[in-house]
Fold this protein.
Amino acid sequence: MTSDPHQLRILLYPDPALRARTMPVDPPDPEINVVVERMIELMFEANGAGLAAPQVGLPWKLFVTLDPQREGEAMAWLNPRLEILDETHVSDEEGCLSLPGITVEVNRPALVRITGQAVDGSPIESTDEWLSRVVQHENDHLDGVLIIDRMTTMERIRNRKAIKQLKSSARNSPGD
Ligand code: NI
């Protein structure tokens, strides 16, 4: 794991960490608390609705989201599990902090129940409709799935240039 969680930053596609296999976490764990705090900070700085551990280079089953019940607050979801409550698929435009400049219309079930653990290890759950989309996007990250994997042919054409630019700027930037 990283030596200093404060150094964590949002990794951009095509960083291989975004495709890593993730492992369950075991709360409570002070190390996880610090990582979660940093992830929340990064999510707010980037005006995101969610951020998953692989996006900061950690292969952990963990993501943070905005809290739909409390404006300006965030939640951490550890070892999340999703259950589809409404199979009706709805399409909505999604972006991703690891894919700046790219938006994709993604079809997802309208309503899911998310269950998981808070940082203190206690069980948490939500069936919030707005959160349903966010947690499906973030849960995809835990499976190494990105919105560009869900593009139609038309969207692939529309986003081709932005994806190419991300790939070439990754090649041109010095490794760290
Ligand atoms: Ni994302």
